[in-house]
Write a structure and sequence with these properties.
By secondary structure, this protein is of the alpha+beta class. Among the domains are: 11-43 and 175-202, no CATH class; 48-164, Alpha-Beta Plaits (2-Layer Sandwich), CATH 3.30.70.1130. Helix content is 56%, strand content 11%. Strands 2-3-1-4 form a 4-stranded antiparallel β-sheet. The chain is elongated and about 150 Å long. The termini are far apart.
């Protein structure tokens, strides 16, 4: 029969472990946050995001009339939004945008562009990410200038209007250094705590009487104190030990009765 070894987790022991190891856990936590922040600052290039927003009309005369939009037109416009997003990613549009923004390759430009539809609306937005804030805004506005004409030319109906043109971003959108520092500190805390926790759970060393009571389930009747040896570390102690060794052995002092007997014996001998 195989014996299954059960691991008894004492919460008090874990709490005690945290109290004794809190300094090391805090140091590892701080180190994790500092390491994550340093790595983010020195090794990750900042990325700047510029966004342009579009509005899609299902028919060409929707813009010029004040008639309300019917649910059928709204549904058709939402389907048209997905097609507009597809057209923006085509080589025809990307070539013209690359030429207008003076980008060397449309393949590189395609990786910088992300187009998403805004749910339950007739709008979509195009986001451009690059390592240059000015370039991101320039590409996004080139898309705003070229895409509506190309979409109308291909669809042969409807229209696309620009809601918001792109602005030059004032700060990078990524990486978020504060977020990364927090993640690094949290990772350091979790790893250090897990390491000490596993060590305490599997450590079978008896360090105090409570360990004996917990492991063997027997009462402890008494303990033997630790005796520490005293080592002589200075010359004065050597002199003291030498003086103690050189002392003459104590002699027993005779009692008064013995002295009187000896004197009486001496007097009898003289007679």
């Amino acid at each position: 029969m195989e014996e299954n070894r059960e691991i008894d987790i004492d919460l008090r022991k874990i709490v005690y472990m945290l109290r004794t190891k809190i300094v090391f856990i805090l140091l590892v936590t701080i180190f994790g946050g500092v390491a994550a922040g340093a790595f983010t600052h020195f090794f990750i290039d900042p990325t700047y995001t510029a966004t342009v927003k579009f509005y899609v009309q299902n028919s060409a005369d929707t813009v010029s009339t004040s008639a309300s939009i019917t649910p059928t037109e709204l549904d058709a416009a939402e389907k048209l939004v997905n097609f507009c997003i597809y057209v923006i990613k085509t080589d025809t549009v990307l070539d013209k945008v690359a030429e207008d923004a003076q980008i060397a390759s449309e393949e590189k430009l395609s990786k910088m562009i992300t187009a998403t539809a805004i749910e339950d609306t007739m709008a979509f937005q195009v986001t451009v990410k690059s390592k240059d804030a000015t370039l991101s805004a320039k590409i996004a506005n080139s898309i705003a200038k070229i895409a509506p004409e190309e979409i109308v030319r291909i669809v042969k109906g409807g229209g696309v209007s620009v809601i918001d043109y792109a602005k030059k971003p004032s700060k990078p959108s990524s990486p978020n250094i504060k977020k990364n520092i927090l993640i690094g500190a949290l990772a350091g805390f979790v790893l250090s705590f897990a390491a000490f926790f596993i060590y305490e759970v599997f450590d079978t060393t008896i360090t105090e009487t409570k360990d004996l009571e917990r492991v063997f389930d027997i009462p402890v009747l008494g303990t033997i104190p630790r005796l520490e040896s005293i080592e002589s570390t200075s010359g004065s102690s050597d002199d003291q030990s030498a003086s103690l060794i050189d002392l003459p052995e104590p002699t027993a002092k005779p009692s008064n009765t013995v002295l009187e007997n000896i004197q009486s014996m001496k007097g009898g001998a003289k007679k």
